[in-house]
Amino acid sequence: MTVLQGGRVVTPGGVIEDGQVTVEAGRITGISRGPAPSGAVDLGGRWLLPGFIDVHVHGGGGYDVTTSPEEMAGAVAFHRRHGTTRTLVSLVTAPPDDLVRQLGWVADAVAAGPSPSGHVVGAHLEGPFLCDARRGAQNPVHLLAPDRRTFARFVEAGKGAVRSMTIAP
User: Which SS3 state, helix, strand or coil, does residue 35 take?
Assistant: First the structure.
């Protein structure tokens, strides 16, 4: 058990000044105010708040998630160092074979689970089933009409990790 004491603890109900947070086996088991037990970690008035869950990451820190598994890991680690605790990797519209390969990397990262460098929780596909008028910044060369077989390839490659998909038929 670890007790974090003396911080500004952000909760759904507001900020607890001089708050106390108890953590057991990696989970928060209590939030309160009051005298800390001996051995508590003094936060010295620092802020303690929930980690950010980013649902739209193409890269970061000079890394591009579509380049390689190592680049994806680098981008996730970059965001982790800045407070992101969970990442939904966003893949841009690309040729289907590229997306299948990239979804395999995401699936592997999801299967690996949390690590000190970050935690990938799935993939967001930004296309390719977009009409040209609603494509935003996506490359029009790779736009496709909705296709069940191609979609099934994506789902299979993602091994359960496809969580979101932007479409505009």
Answer: coil
pLDDT in tens, 60-100: 999 999 999 999 999 999 999 998 999 999 999 999 999 99
SS3 state of residue 50? coil
Domain ranges of the chain: 2-48, 52-168
Q: Give every residue of the chain whose pLDDT is below 70, as ranges.
A: none
The confidence score (pLDDT) of residue 117 equals 80
**Beta carbons within 8 Å of 53's beta carbon, 6+ residues apart:** 84, 85, 86, 87, 88, 121
Could you tell me if 129 and 147 are in contact, meaning their C-beta atoms sit under 8 angstroms apart?
yes
Ranges of beta strands (E only) in the chain are 2-11, 14-24, 27-33, 41-42, 47-48, 52-57, 59-60, 63-64, 84-92, 120-130, 162-168
Q: Would you state the pLDDT for residue 115?
A: 85
CATH of 52-168, one of 3.40.1000.70, 3.90.190.20, 3.20.20.140, 3.40.50.300: 3.20.20.140
Say what the pTM is: 0.80
Identify any residues that bridge with 31 across adjacent strands, giving them in sequence order. Answer: 21
